[in-house]
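Hello K.,

You asked for the raw outputs rather than the summary table, so here they are, unedited. I folded two proteins back to back in the same session to keep the settings identical. This is the first:
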Amino acid sequence: MFGDLSSPLFDEKDFVEAFGITDWKDKWEVQNGRISAGDHDPGLPTLRDSEHVVLQQKSYLKALKELGVRGFRIDAAKHMTLEHLAKVWVPEITQGMHIFGEIITDGGATKEEYELFLQPYLEQTRLAAYDFPLFSTIFNAFSKTGSLEYLVDPFSLGQALSNPRAITFTTTHDIPNNDVFVEHVMDEDMEWLALAYVIGRDGGVPLIYADLDTSGITNKAGEPRWQDMWCHPKMAHLLQFHNAVHGEPMTIVESSKDHLVIGRGSKGTVIINKGKKKSSFTLNRPSGTELVTSVSIIEDANKIDVVVASASFALILH
């Protein structure tokens, strides 16, 4: 994949001047400096976008495509210039691939980091990106003082990416494993509700985070919180629902500070109860309902009455 390694791929001429980033709101510094832990840390070297560097990067990506790779995450696109990205991600590389960039921001429209880094990337490339604006919206909505009404239409407010460009999530590798981001680890119950929203809604491609207990954070049972998350029984239910309603239109049936009901065409309904008490919901649906999660349900010919426990969600297939 790396070609002839009898001599180094790069030498000192291929790197920009070594200096650590100190001002994370200075676009030039962020895209040319080194990610560093301080004066004692030499940091991560930054390559130039020279013809030789770009050729090596494109050759590497082509080799991965030939091995059967069908997608790439650009880590971290925030630290590359748009000119460099344009030289590497040419049609022969992007054709038939799912590619998304990691551009960490503290929110969506009106936030300085969004306007400095993510907005230009979205305007000047056709690549997808982590939906950090939506994550910020979700984090706030599921906080103690937040409202689920924030989640009704965040895109219209500039607080979510467009559906075709969005990689949606509730946790990334950085959040539990990096001291800078660990404050964004959600309450365990609230994260499951957020996952029900991310996976149950129509929009973006959900990213499911799982690890090998790298953070040491545990769940309520004292077990590694995200270990084997991809095959957790609740996750299996969520993915079953996601696949069953894929491509169905989304409507907001009901919303309030603590409740959100999402309809997915004629095939399914997501009910999220963030509140501290169980809540009842009436759905005007015919009988023949399959529960993907365990809740109390009463059916008659024209409606379904569903009782959802506090801090819980229900997934219903019709």
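The second followed immediately with the same parameters:
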Amino acid sequence: MQYTRLKGMTDLYGEDLALWQAFEVLSRKVLERFGYREIRTPLLEMTELFQRGLGEDSDVVQKEMYTFPDRKGRSLTVRPEGTASVVRAVLENNMLHGESLLKLFYLGPMYRYERPQKGRLRQFHQLGAECLGAAGPEVDAETIHLLAVLLNELGLTEYQVRLNSIGCSHCRPAFHRALTDYYHTHAPELCADCTRRLSTNPLRLLDCKVPGCAALRTGAPLVTNFHCSECAEHYLGLQRLLNRLEVSHSLEPSLVRGLDYYVRTVFEFVSGDLGAQDSILGGGRYDRLVGEFGGPDLPAIGFAIGVERLVMLLRGKLPPREVPTEYYGIALDPTSRELMLETIGRLRLEGCPADLDHRGGSLKAQLKRAAHRGAHYALILGPDECQRGVVVCRDLQASSQLELPLADLPDHFRKS
């Protein structure tokens, strides 16, 4: 039987993996420059964590989570997103102790059972960050600025920043009522999911991609018309700060996020190069989530980048991370192979990227494999070289060669 990968999963290797690694290296540098430190959380969590954090009526909880009972009958879920796990880890490990502001980032796989499509798989990867402890628009602007800096340094400049404020627990109920009343008058035109959302999660009505439902957005009430004075001031402050940071943005009053924990600021970065599913990343403020998990009432903001979708845009723009093979050992008989293994081992201990041809064969065949690996030098040992205590060092780029004493080999390359 030939086994194949599961639908919605992928194998990552070769040039694609090198591109991912280059993205990861640069992303870590930018995040650390902005004061973020990495956190790693488990793939498995109690199902209740996501039900409580994401909302019982969210599409993720209702239809997309990989959930199963363990041998003790506990309901476990493979994480569909990162924020809930990070907040749980922060509280469980008392990471807020003595910290007025906590900045954390994560990078890893997430899982959702949804229809696979271009750049959107059932196992997907997110680079996300959470900043806990600041309520002002300054940290919102800093977060969006961080993302603009990251994309620019990745070589991506053709993107748009969409911005909205969905209000708070004081002003949003009135907007919910107006939104529900509007969509009730169009109930026969709604898809099945929106018919359910009308009674469970009316804000998500604005996020539907079904053409008939999407067309209704143009006549829907605007959340910005329902802002309380504090939300209005916060939103205007954010716009002013983004202008100071020279981050171009557009105001999108129908923009919402797919998870229930968001309040006030929400944003997304989009690129027309991705087609209809144009979102590169998104995020927003979630001031109530820490309290929902039993912690203090702590303001917070975060974002998540879909790595698969971003890497699609990076092809041809970000040079892949190269893993060079500087030296490639070639042995022409069993005795030479033992000595070459020792020689390559000494080079590796000196920090030299070196590999050994374990397949053997003719000199021509082994040189061909050395060139295929991208090696700079081929080190060649045969019976004659072993007897004389030397190695032939062939420069595969300059097509030249010289003999070097085996005993002096590490010193020679260390000096060069």
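Residues 14-170+228-314 form a domain with the BirA Bifunctional Protein; domain 2 fold (CATH 3.30.930.10).

Happy to rerun anything if the numbers look odd on your end.

Regards,
P.
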